[in-house]
Specification:
Number of domains: 4
CATH architecture of the largest domain: 3-Layer(aba) Sandwich
Strand order of the largest sheet: 2-1-5-6-7
Shape: globular
CATH class of the largest domain: Alpha Beta
Structural class: mainly alpha
Largest sheet: 5 strands, parallel
Number of helices: 24
Distance between the termini: 50 Å
Radius of gyration: 25 Å
CATH superfamily of the largest domain: SGNH hydrolase
């Protein structure tokens, strides 16, 4: 009997290891849910349509088995005749590559840089390869459990190009020229691909030589160091003021904030690539695990109307994934007016009981609340009603973290997206002016070139969303929370 028990335990252990431990080539086992999301995104972004069942299954099977790499799949979609026939302009092309490959929108600097290259004669295939040539792409593929495939490295450059990069690091961070020993050492590591440009920059920033220098610098001088080192130019007075307003008295926190912004800029990544250096990633939030993000959501409640209530449909169909056990307390036709009037037939439910938002948050014991209002309220003095609503919530929940999600867009412009934008801008300002309130842009990720909800995200031609819309929404919220946890941690507030 003991031998039988031992064999059973051994089998369980073996199966557990096969399920959760990396395979021999260093990649994790394929996650079919993540791969399905990846393939669906390629269909939606590249072909502007939902995947057909046969095509989706074939791609997921091929990626899962390893017979097709992530790079192979991305190339197949972006250079397919169906994609080419859409005749997207250069700006739309670059935006779609970021969205399809890196699952995010490009920042303004990066977008302008790549579009400028296209306008100057660089081929779309070269720009595609340039965008996909990053550790960010590798990390995404690893998270799906698929091979990133052909990792297009920066074109080989002369040692003088790499030396230029190294000397900029020395000059910017250390205020001096590189010594011969240091120059030779860094050249070997960078040209050999043993260290990325962003990792090298972090090493310079963390050096005792720079820390000593930085300790006596003013905020303006410190900001200038990052502009000259990462972007190769001096900042304007407006740019200095913008960063200075976000800085406190903690040098470590100030340096980390500046580093995250400048190292992640597409301008710096392009600079690395142009100089034959693997850019890498400077996103410190990558250190925050999925388990930590799930734990945060599991101690949270999300409140809203029927648009938010759609999360229940999505979770029932696709599972909760990164959203953990977040408590969805939403109701069809819920609005600011219905909350103020305590109309029980339209109030969000907590454990089967209709309650005003302030009471839902209090009685749930949630550490954080995510609130998405406005769809049913775009009329009259909606901004003041929303502010009163939030003031009331804070009066009952003084210590709860409150995340205001932007009112999501409309497909048919009813309510008018211009009015939605105005409300979102006002609520972002409210969050800036009130401690413990944070604004999340859940409007921009869903719009198309016309400024309306993209067709692939609209289930009814109005404000309600498809499964793809909720998948995107979960992605936006989880990315925000991951970054939030990291920023709070480096400032000692989490």
């Amino acid at each position: 009997m003991k031998k039988l028990i031992g064999l059973v335990l051994s089998l369980i252990l073996t199966l557990t290891m096969l399920m959760f431990y990396p395979v021999n080539d260093g990649t994790v086992l394929a996650n079919t849910d993540s791969i399905t999301t990846f393939v669906t995104r390629l269909y939606e972004v590249c072909l502007n349509r939902n995947p057909d069942e046969s095509g989706l299954n074939n791609w997921v099977s091929s990626l899962s088995s390893g017979s097709v790499t992530g790079y192979d799949a991305a190339v197949a979609f972006f250079f397919s005749s169906e994609y080419q026939n859409r005749n997207l302009d250069n700006t739309q092309f670059v935006t779609s590559v970021y969205q399809g490959v890196l699952a995010r929108d490009p920042d303004t600097t990066g977008l302008n840089n790549w579009v400028s290259r296209l306008n100057s004669g660089t081929s779309r295939r070269d720009v595609f390869n340039g965008i996909i040539s990053s550790n960010e792409w590798v990390s995404l593929c690893r998270s799906y459990g698929i091979s990133p495939g052909v990792q297009v490295e920066p074109a080989p450059q002369s040692s003088s190009s790499v030396d230029e990069f190294i000397n900029r690091m020395y000059s910017g961070f250390l205020g001096r020229s590189a010594d011969n020993t240091g120059l030779t050492s860094w050249r070997g590591r960078l040209t050999g691909g043993r260290i990325s440009g962003i990792s090298a920059a972090r090493s310079f920033m963390n050096s005792s030589e720079f820390r000593t220098r930085a300790s006596s610098m003013s905020q303006s001088q410190l900001i200038t160091v990052f502009y000259t080192t990462f972007l190769g130019r001096n900042p304007s007075s407006t740019e200095i003021s913008s960063y200075a307003s976000r800085m406190g008295g903690d040098l470590n926190a100030n340096l980390e904030m500046l580093f995250l912004n400048f190292a992640n800029s597409d301008e710096f990544i392009s600079y690395c690539t142009d100089h034959g250096i693997i850019p890498g990633t400077g996103d410190g939030s990558s250190m925050i695990s999925d388990a930590e993000v799930m734990s945060f959501f599991s101690d949270s409640v999300i409140i809203g109307s029927s648009v938010t209530d759609g999360f229940n449909m999505y979770f029932n169909s696709r599972g909760r994934g990164i959203m953990g056990d977040i408590n969805v307390c939403a109701r069809v036709s819920y609005s600011l007016l219905n909350d103020a009037a305590s109309r029980t037939a339209y109030l969000p439910m907590l454990d089967g009981t209709p309650m005003r938002a302030r009471d839902v948050i209090r009685d749930s014991g949630a550490r954080a609340a995510f609130i998405c209002m406005g769809t049913n309220d775009i009329a009259g003095n909606v901004v003041q009603r929303y502010c009163n609503y939030l003031d009331d919530i804070r009066s009952v929940n003084p210590d709860t973290l409150i995340f205001i999600e932007a009112c999501t867009p409309s497909r048919d412009d009813h309510p008018a997206n211009a009015d939605i934008r105005a409300l979102n801008e006002a609520m972002e300002q409210y969050c800036n002016d009130h401690d413990g309130f944070y604004f999340i842009d859940t409007f921009t990720p869903f719009i198309d070139g016309s400024g309306r909800m993209a067709a692939r995200y609209s289930s009814d031609g109005n404000v309600h969303m498809t499964m793809a819309g909720y998948a995107k929404w979960c992605e936006v919220l989880s990315d925000y929370v991951r970054q939030f946890i990291y920023e709070q941690r480096i400032t000692g507030n989490f």
